[in-house]
Amino acid sequence: MAKKEEGFFSSVRRERKKIQWPSKKTTIEYTLLVLVISIITGVIIWFLDEIVFSNLLKLLINM
User: Fold this and answer.
1) In the predicted model, what is the mean pLDDT of residues 30-56?
2) What is the value of pTM for the model shown?
């Protein structure tokens, strides 16, 4: 916690110096990982919606 005589912004500045930013390579790898997982998830949801759920709904309607 900041001392009373220190200003808020000087405390923020000191804390910002402690941040360890990821490298460019790490950022690109994580971005690609998020994109791949998002695409895979989208395909799975599309498959479930288009094939599985629509067939189940047709079965229920035809009963």
Assistant:
1) 94
2) 0.61
